[in-house]
Design goal:
Blueprint: H1 2-12, E1 16-21, H2 26-29, E2 34-36, H3 38-47, E3 52-56, H4 59-68, E4 74-76, H5 85-88, H6 92-104, E5 115-120, H7 125-133, E6 137-139, H8 144-154, E7 157-161, H9 164-173, E8 181-184, H10 195-200, E9 203-206, H11 218-227, E10 232-235, H12 241-246, E11 249-250, H13 253-262, E12 268-272, H14 275-284, E13 289-292, H15 308-319, H16 331-347
Parallel strand pairs: 1-2, 1-3, 3-4, 5-6, 5-7, 7-9, 8-9, 10-11, 10-12, 12-13
């Protein structure tokens, strides 16, 4: 399989760029021209010379690459079943219904005068477009504080989706009291929140989460500290607030990598993020101890769907002139999603 992928990649040359997310398995990411988080990879896709963008990630990432791509470029997802549970927790019809109820309460207008919507990068193109059309923007885990400040400069309230943990952690670190942040549950009447609490809230959080990062618990931090003397616990801000409070440092995927790489020999780290990245960092830093925060291992099962077989199939089809599994965002959605992404670039 390695030989076939290498041969197809070599034959395609600059016509195809392969992007690999940090959470991909080693058998796939070894063939990536660029590795990184979802937004960094989308930027690389936009700068790529080739016609074909083969995105080894999940569906929302390929959508973002298509939104940011140039005319004539084609985005391919090797396995269409590679979705994202967090992105799927914010269905556009549910979000629109929520917004309509907030409008009826007089908390905002259709265009967003009253509440600024912010969506995490880990969301569908439809949700990004929803925010863009209502004066909001997209954020990453690293620039979320900047997005919050930008949003509060426009309105006194913000609506953050789909990850409640990133929103709560960001707000809390900026000094927003927990009782001024409420969670909207789309499966409950009025989101399960009283009108009074909605009026008093500064941040309305969508009830969504990352299935990987939510698995980390405060007791995991206690156990790893007891097991390894002097270990440094670093976690992703998609983890629960209680875990982030116990950690020594919090950061995006890129920041977690930087912390490990820049540490001196002999440093010890327990990392609260996806297991493939943790294992890769351990191999790349043999002079340091790098372990997962949870011994049971937290695997992103949807990211894992991209296999060498899928990658090989996609590349060999391109050689034969066949485009498989193309990701194409509708033009009206692409426009407003691009607006939301461009606003993020302006504040970054």
């Amino acid at each position: 399989m390695d030989e076939r992928i290498a041969a197809a990649k070599d034959a395609l040359g600059r016509e195809a760029v392969i992007l690999g997310h940090h959470y991909q398995r080693d058998e796939v990411i070894r063939f990536a021209d660029f590795t990184g988080d979802s937004y960094k990879l989308s930027q690389e896709a936009a700068r790529a010379e080739g016609k074909y963008i083969v995105f080894c990630g999940v569906h929302f990432m390929a959508e973002s690459a298509d939104v940011l791509s140039r005319p004539g470029q084609v985005t391919i997802l090797p396995d269409l079943n590679a979705g994202c549970s967090m992105a799927d927790m914010a269905d556009i019809t549910q979000v629109e219904d929520c917004w309509e109820q907030l409008v009826q309460m007089g908390l905002t207008s259709d265009s967003g005068d009253g509440i600024t919507p912010i969506t995490y990068m880990n969301s569908t193109a439809a949700i990004k477009a929803f925010c863009g059309e209502r004066g909001g923007l997209v954020c990453t885990s690293s620039n979320a504080p900047g997005a919050f400040k930008w949003a509060f400069a426009k309105n006194k309230k913000l609506f953050f989706l789909p990850d409640q943990h990133l929103g709560r952690n960001t707000g809390y670190r900026m000094g927003i009291p927990l009782d001024e942040m409420v969670v909207w549950d789309p499966y409950m009447i009025m989101g399960g929140v009283t009108p009074e609490r909605l009026r008093n809230a500064k941040v309305i959080l969508w009830k969504g989460h990352c299935s990987v990062h939510q698995r980390f618990l405060p007791e995991h931090v206690d156990k790893v500290r007891a097991r390894y003397e002097g270990i440094r616990v670093i976690v992703h801000p998609e983890c629960r607030l209680e875990v982030c409070q116990k950690a020594d440092d919090i950061g995006s995927t890129e920041r977690l990598i930087k912390l490990v790489k820049e540490a001196p020999a002999g440093a010890k780290f327990a990392i609260g993020t996806e297991i493939h990245l943790v294992n890769r960092l351990a191999k790349q830093n043999p002079a340091k101890l790098v372990v997962t925060l949870d011994d049971s291992g937290c695997l992103c099962t949807t990211m894992f769907r991209i296999s060498p077989q899928h990658l090989c199939w996609a590349l060999e089809n391109l050689l034969e002139g066949n485009v498989v599994n193309r990701i194409r965002v509708k033009e009206n959605v692409k426009h407003w999603a691009r607006v939301a992404l461009d606003r993020m670039l302006e504040i970054s």
